[in-house]
Amino acid sequence: MKTIFGFLTAHRMGCLATVSGGRPRVRPWMFALAHEGKPYFCTSNRKEVFRQLQEVPFVEFTATSPEMVTVRLRGRIEFSSDIKLKSRVLDGSDLVRSIYQTPDNPAFELFFLAEGQATMSDFSGQLPQTFRF
Question: Torsion angle, CA of 14/91/2/81, rounded to 10 degrees?
Answer without folding.
Answer: -90
